[in-house]
Specification:
There is one protein chain. This protein is an alpha+beta fold. The chain has two domains: about 60 residues, no CATH class; about 100 residues, no CATH class. Helices cover about 30% and strands about 15% of the residues. The chain contains four helices and five strands. The strands form two sheets. Strands 3-5-4 form a three-stranded antiparallel sheet, covered by helices on one side. A two-stranded parallel sheet has the order 1-2.
Amino acid sequence: MDLQSGKLYWPTTVATPPTYPTLEEDISCDVLIIGAGSSGAQCANLLCEQGMSVVVVDKRKAGEGSTSSNTALIQYAGEKSFVSLAHSFGEEAAARHLRLCEQSINDIERISRQLPIDPDFIRRDSLYYASNKEDIPELTEEHVLLRKHGFKVDFWDEGRLPGIILFKKRLLCTIMMTRR
């Protein structure tokens, strides 16, 4: 399956990407990971740190699947809001999910510091905003639940936004998720 089209950025960042031999014999390992992209590499690294024997296989070259066309923007609060996750799975499960995602980013940062190259890892805050009055109650509920579960968030209304938010879009309120 062809996962991307057009000119991709990431393949241009490495002059000579590493290559690995094709697996041509039976082998034994504790864990077999199928997929040599970012997720596969991170899983392999974590499992190797735990002392496991790990083999990673992919039909393509390492990093040539969806990893080669990703945005490289990683945030622990994803596409589904905490409110939505809490409605589907309960507040505790939603909070655990966000904490595990946050821990994953911490792990990526730790690993990036150990690499022989500078991967340009930079931490950024996240911003959720409401530009319609109908969105304010959901953003307010999101803020309340995130604070209740110990996440570092601020709620800014229209009075606090000028001078802080510099892009030109009508904003009625925002939630700023900051690094812990």
